[in-house]
Write a structure and sequence with these properties.
With 661 residues, this protein is an alpha/beta fold. A hairpin with a 2-residue loop joins β8 and β9. It has five domains: 123 residues, no CATH class; 85 residues, no CATH class; 104 residues, Nucleotidyltransferase, domain 5 (2-Layer Sandwich); 211 residues, no CATH class; 42 residues, no CATH class. The chain contains 28 helices and eleven strands. The longest helix is centred in the N-terminal third of the chain and has 27 residues. α16 crosses α17. Pfam families: DUF4371.
Length: 661
């Protein structure tokens, strides 16, 4: 008799009663999801090999007045037995897959328990399990399952193939024909190339088409030229409807490859048993709201643990409320096979729909997954910090002026050519002669535009002076107006103040985007930036002397005068500081900008620091410094925040932390 399916090969996952009660968190491969319906071969294999099995820490709910419950030891004694968390009952997954609905002489016996309905009479469990195990239909199902696995895993040919050896040969030949076609499609995918062109139908001609028939056909033509005999013979002998070159076949191959990649990612996630969801929504070029779903987890590669961030899919969404996005995210993860019981973190932006305290996506998911801690995207926080800091009037006006000038030179061919010629005349080896546009969404990316604008500032002024004579207008903007706006001391000082701050911020932004950047590194990086800018603020007078010196040099080249604006008794639209120009611009631009930025950094990264304080004490470097009260507080926090991950009582955890220390 064939060996029964080993329980060790089934997928296991820890959970708790409170989580199981919510249907959204039930494992997608729970046996109840396969019952009472017709199963295809993939579903049968999924059920008999990968059915969900609770691990040893799972707490089975009690039922009836006798307080009886399912026993984990039964799964070892009866390998065919499978527990359903959805129905709190037992099934025979082998009979669910292969048994008939009726049995006995004349098929008069209607099979229900273990097959159509779950078994829940725990008082008679062992008796009924043994009785079912001895049934003839169960033994036949075991035999069928054994043979099915051998065939499905290509360890044995099916009956038709055994009888028809020619069929097997035809299968191998068809696979050999498809191989170069699949390789061409995968190559286009890896290189990010479009497959199809203007004429991508009909037979593949060796003569290069006058019209572009796409990269896919070009790669196949090149493969034939390089001596791919199998491909050439296939295209020469195949009928017009069996060349496997049509767009439909291409899409099917792409979909199959995508499923293979996704399944491998899902397998790694479930193996890690701990992941964080990363999601964001945006509108695509066709105006459809797309929800991008990614995951962050730790993978083991050749004995080393590596942090990974993998993209799973795009999901079109119509309901963009917190509840709608939460349902979309959970439904998508479950449909892909990700066990959401392992969700321990969430990373989104600060939009109300995502981060709302009560009805945001993160809050709703946390009600279902209590251990999924929400962390506001650090890079998004940094972007918001610099955005709000740049709202002070001189800085805002400076950035607005730069944007207008960039648009002016980019939209006017004549203006762009004059600027290019002036740069090339002075710096022949210059590679970048066209001003860069500001990124509309990511302020830290303004640095590239600012740096180039600063480097060619003198040439911009010279070009505007030349264009002023020709009155070359773009969108109603006169070059004379732009020249006047950048030749003011307020603009020059603001530009010189922004450049070093944006340089520091860009470095932090790049650090926060690293895949292996954890919460501790995030807080450390942000603290380093805060300390650096705070030091500039504490030594504002000496630091601004260098800024003002550079401003004087720039003003001298452009003919601007470093003077303070006219002062009046009751000034309400701008600052009215007394003193010399250096003191005025230090107090009106430099110090306010630094104060605003420091305040934003402090407030926006406070939540990250608070969360870090909760968990950092279990790190070896922090654990050794804990006193008795610190150990108790750490243990209480861990048990409160992650109750399902902490085994034993608080006293047990305290004792373990003491041993670590």
């Amino acid at each position: 008799a064939p060996a029964e399916i080993e329980i060790e090969c089934l997928s296991t996952s820890p959970t708790s009663k409170s989580v199981v009660e919510d249907s959204q968190l039930n494992p997608p491969n729970d046996v109840a999801n396969f019952c009472r319906k017709s199963l295809n071969d993939n579903e049968k294999y999924e059920l008999i090999v990968k059915a969900w099995v609770p691990d040893i820490t799972y707490k089975f709910p009690t039922s009836s007045k006798w307080k009886l419950k399912f026993q984990h030891s039964w799964l070892r004694s009866f390998p065919w037995l499978t527990y359903s968390a959805i129905e709190d009952g037992a099934y025979c997954r082998i009979c669910v897959s292969f048994s008939q609905k009726n049995a006995g002489k004349g098929n008069h016996e209607n099979l229900k328990a273990f097959i159509q309905t779950s078994f829940r009479s725990w008082k008679k469990a062992l008796e009924k399990f043994k009785e079912h195990q001895n049934k003839l239909y169960h033994k036949d199902a075991i035999e069928d399952a054994h043979n099915f696995r051998l065939i499905f895993e290509n360890k044995r040919n099916d009956v038709i193939t055994e009888i028809d050896k020619g069929r097997k040969q035809q299968q191998l030949e068809n696979r050999r024909k498809l191989t170069p076609i699949i390789r061409a499609i995968l190559l286009c995918g890896r290189q990010g190339l479009a497959l199809r062109g203007n004429r991508d139908y009909g037979p593949l001609l060796m003569k290069v088409s006058k019209e572009n028939d796409g990269n896919f056909r070009a790669f196949l033509r090149y493969a034939i030229e390089c001596g791919d005999i199998d491909l050439h013979q296939h295209l020469q002998t195949a009928s017009i409807n069996a060349t496997y070159l049509s767009p439909r076949i291409q899409n099917e191959i792409i979909d199959a490859a995508g499923k293979i990649i996704t399944n491998k990612i899902v397998e790694r996630i479930n193996k890690a048993k701990c992941f964080a969801s990363i999601a964001d929504e945006t509108i695509d070029v066709s105006g459809i709201e797309q929800f991008s779903v990614c995951v962050r987890y730790v993978d083991e590669i050749e004995g080393e643990y590596v942090t990974r961030e993998d993209f799973l899919c795009f999901v079109p969404v119509e309901i963009v409320t917190g509840e709608g996005l939460a349902n979309t995210l959970l439904t998508t993860l479950n449909a892909l096979g990700v066990n959401t019981l392992f969700m321990k973190g969430q990373g989104y932006d600060g939009a109300r729909a995502m981060s709302g305290q009560y009805n945001g996506c993160a809050a709703i998911i946390k009600k279902i997954c209590p251990e999924a801690v929400y962390v506001h995207c650090a890079n998004h926080n940094l972007n918001l910090a610099i955005t709000h800091a740049c709202k002070i009037t001189p800085i805002r006006n400076c950035l607005g002026t730069i944007k207008e000038i960039v648009n002016y030179f980019r939209k006017s061919n004549k203006a762009g050519l004059i600027l290019k010629n002036k740069i090339k005349a002075d710096v022949p080896e210059a590679k970048q002669t066209r001003l860069l546009k500001f990124c509309e969404t990511r302020w830290v990316e303004h640095l590239n535009s600012l740096s180039l604008f600063y480097d060619v500032f003198e040439y911009i002024c010279s070009a505007l002076e030349e264009l002023e004579v020709t009155t070359c207008k773009v969108d109603g903007v006169q070059p004379h107006t732009l020249l006047l706006s950048i030749c003011t001391p307020q603009f020059i000082v603001a530009l010189l103040v922004l450049k070093p701050i944006f340089s520091l911020t860009k470095n932090l932004s790049l650090s926060l985007q690293k895949v292996d950047c954890d919460l501790s590194s995030c807080v450390q990086y942000s603290n380093n930036l805060y300390e650096e800018i705070n030091q500039m603020r504490e030594n504002a007078e000496s630091n601004f002397k260098n800024v003002f010196k550079q401003a004087m040099e720039m003003a001298e080249k452009t003919g601007a005068q470093m003077i303070i604006p006219r002062r009046v008794k009751n000034q309400i639209h701008r600052e009215n500081y007394a003193g010399n120009p250096e003191a005025y611009y230090r107090k009106s631009i430099f110090i306010p900008f630094l104060d605003h930025y420091l305040d934003q950094l402090s407030s926006r990264f406070l939540d990250h620091s608070t969360l870090l304080l909760k968990i950092q004490n279990i790190l070896p470097s922090k654990c050794i410094a804990l006193d008795t009260d610190g150990i108790k507080e750490t243990a209480h926090t861990l048990i409160t925040e992650w109750p399902n991950e902490i085994l034993g009582t608080s006293e047990d955890l305290i004792a373990e932390i003491v041993m670590w220390r």
